[in-house]
Fold:
Amino acid sequence: MEITRKTPPFCIGIGCSAGGLEAACEFFQQVVEKTGAAFVVIPHLSREHQSKFSAVLERFTKMPVHRVEGNMTLERDHVYVLTEDRMMIVEGNHLKVRRRYSTEIINKSIDIFFKSMAKAYRENGIGIILSGMGNDGIEGIKLIEDCHGLVIVQDPDTTDFNILPQAAINKDDPHMILPPADIARFLLKYLEIHDSLN
Structure:
């Protein structure tokens, strides 16, 4: 990975589907300090309709929010939101985007991104699962843990749709299970401690 002063030391991947926008807004509203991390949000979106996810999210954070439609370079304290009909991986500090194939009936965008983040960031990769349906992301969080990264899952009792976070809890052993605002507060302390040790 090419290291510059803008290169984020941590990559925080946030996967969600139904009910995830509200949870993401609650999370980012509490990220009131600069962490130096890059935040990448992978929501499940309709193929046909332009998503307003990033437009809504930018009302809840002072960080720049980007709709990721093509390849981009990650920067510290920026938020990147995957757009409709796209799949994305991270290599080094670069997001690489492609169209979602017509054969990809089941959306595995969270797994695809989380697996790439685990390989690229190792112990500095952080995977968060918020409200949603299905089980996308389960394979990804297992690889994040195998690479000694951090996995946090939204408390199912605080979700609009608890199937995805409950599946993550049942099939994995996340480090923390918290409501969205508390996930943010925990991360701020976690990253502050890590920063003080370096």
